[in-house]
Amino acid sequence: MSVAPTVAIGPPRPAEGGIREPGRFVVLTGSIGGGHVGPARELARRLVLAGHRAEVFDVVTMAPAGAGRMLRALFRAQLSWMPGTWDRIFRSTDRDDAAPGGTGGLHHLVVPTLRRIMARAPVAAVVSTFPLASHAAALALRDGRWPVPLITYLTDPAPHAAWIVDGTDRYLTGWAATAAELRRRTPAPVGVVEALVRPEFGDGVVDRGVCRGRLALVCSGSWGVGDIPATVADLMSDPDGPTRPVVVCGHNHRLRRHLAARYRIPVLGWVSDMASLMRDCDVAVLNSGGLTLAEAAAAGLPVVHYRPLAGQGVANAMFAERAGLARWARSASELISAIRTRPTGPRLTAAGRDAATDVLETAGRPAARTPG
Questions:
Q1: Residue 210's pLDDT is what?
Q2: 0.70 exceeded by the pTM?
Q3: Are 284 and 278 in contact (CB under 8 A)?
């Protein structure tokens, strides 16, 4: 089976700055929602700006016989209709002795294809933004045929055991608190970098001063899962009525139709320019997607976690609250109070180190030009 990357980008001629042969970087991700794919694409973009070639592969679509797509559909249904079962699985596999990291052995399905990808041309490094992909990459590299570093970028602030993979040469995260937790869990080096979000989220950040409490951005990733209707109802229950929800439903068309029929508020589907929408809002009410939290931090948008998704969502909300990144409201009254009292904005690392630069240094490759 021949597998083409979802993104294959690189300089059409030898890179500038004395690099005669641009390095080839294989970036692995998983389309379980968009939270893992977005950082992978952003890293590929930055590597190309640095004068190298980057190929992004989705291990979900890479799995043979449609197994990955079936897994994705089942997980989405489980998260939507039986979240308690996923929460139990998530908790039971968040152990150092979980074998291997709670993937259920599914990573074995993509190893043969991944080895063929590696054999096409020399690889400078493999970077993963998805736990299952990290396990598959570690297994593919284990025989030593390709002595290249394996780097994992965590897309969530709360590190689950599935992220910890033997054979990983370096971990990257945009959260200092996450790095501290990783160092307790693994002896591998951990780097704190700028979060892998698109550059427009950091352009023209609004100085909001005291939160006006006018527009609350409510979203739940590209799938639009979670108890969004209850979140909107709770926001609308404020007797003083200062908060107006702006709801992003992603690709959940049923949710969009339901909310649009019930409320006279902005209800949107998929939003391509989320950065501009974040700049127009006063606060984000999230159910704990890691990428959206990072985007809000880059845009300077305060965040309140509310009704977090089962499993990783609850873990992210708990971790973010403990690390002082965002409030976690447990009731409608706490939600309204948190918005009125100006929520704390999530803080990304102030180190300013670029993730692509870190990857290039780990791979022993110079940059032809500054990534950005």
A1: 47
A2: yes
A3: yes
Side-chain-side CA neighbours of 83 within 13 Å: the count stands at 13
Q: Are 228 and 249 spatial neighbours (Cβ–Cβ below 8 Å)?
A: yes
Among 312, 310, 311, smallest CA distance to 293 is for 312
Strand partners, 128: 28, 152
The H-or-E segment that residue 248 falls in is strand 244-248
Alpha carbons 368 and 358: distance in angstroms, whole number: 14
pLDDT of residue 9: 62
Whether residue 266 has a cis bond before it, omega within 30° of 0? no
Torsion of CA 36, 37, 39, 44, to 10 degrees: 140
Reported as a single tens digit per residue, the pLDDT across 32-69 is: 888 999 999 999 999 999 999 999 999 998 888 788 88
CATH numbers and ranges of domains, the chain: 7-195+350-362 (3.40.50.2000), 202-340 (3.40.50.2000)
Q: How large a percentage of the chain has pLDDT more than 90?
A: 61
